[in-house]
Amino acid sequence: MIYTTTLMSSRGGLIGSLINKVRPLAAASISNTPAVPSKTLEEQVGLPPRPKKPLTPYFRFMREQRPKLKAANPQITTVEVVRQLSKNWSDADAQLKERLQAEFKRDQQIYVEERTKYDATLTEEQRAEIKQLKQDLVDAKERRQLRKRVKELGRPKKPASAFLRFIASERINTPQGDKQTYREWHQKTTAKWTRLSDSEKEVYMQESRKEMELYRKAISVWEEKMIRLGHIDVVRHGNLIDPPEPKPRKTLASKDI
User: Fold this and answer.
1) At 246, is the secondary structure helix, strand, or coil?
2) Which domain holds residue 63?
3) How many independent structural domains does the chain possess?
4) Which of 36, 176, 211, 251 reaches 20 to 30 Å from 126, CA-CA?
5) 19 within 8 A of 168, measured Cβ to Cβ
6) Where does the UniProt annotation place the signal sequence (predicted)?
7) Contact 5/159 with Cβ under 8 angstroms?
8) 207-238 burial string, b = 16+ CB within 10 Å, else e?
């Protein structure tokens, strides 16, 4: 069965689209500051970046030859560059490969020495922090992969909350001004939501409850289908736990005995 929902009567499609846009912004703190380059794990715990591994002979060859190939073929694509350089590496003379291999071995020895000195400066606490950060990255990657997999399998989308519905409607009724940043508009709109009476909020809450009920039915049907198809990893854990067997009730006869 396919469940369809409407949002705020005839303007549902438009507001639904706006909800998708404001959902991530309302869920997180909004900032207009430029993106900061990501730090290494070591830098995140207050350490200087660890020594970098040297390039292998093949990647040294790529580094040397890529500018020459791009200069000779300005319109060449990245895929074609990699394909051509890979072929050129296979056909490269032995003397060139020996030179690159010697450079790699020299830099590898330097790297091992620098890495040994670097590791010796780490405290046990810093090692533990770095280990935890690595695990956090692994966990985050697994969550991203699971979200992608869930989307590909067509999981029903959870409806927006009453607050997000209000934010979406305000995008239409009182849009952001020309000289107003989104952060300023969002703060003003959030303050307006807090001033609404319970009856005014109830309009948005009714719509949210209505769609949530449809969502619960749809997600239940979808999860049953996923279990039948063997996609257990995308089903909420609580739905995989069988309820405990009811305890047998004692009869009056057994009490008398």
Assistant:
1) coil
2) 44-122
3) 2
4) 36
5) yes
6) none
7) yes
8) bbeebeeebeebbeebbeebeeeeeeebbeee
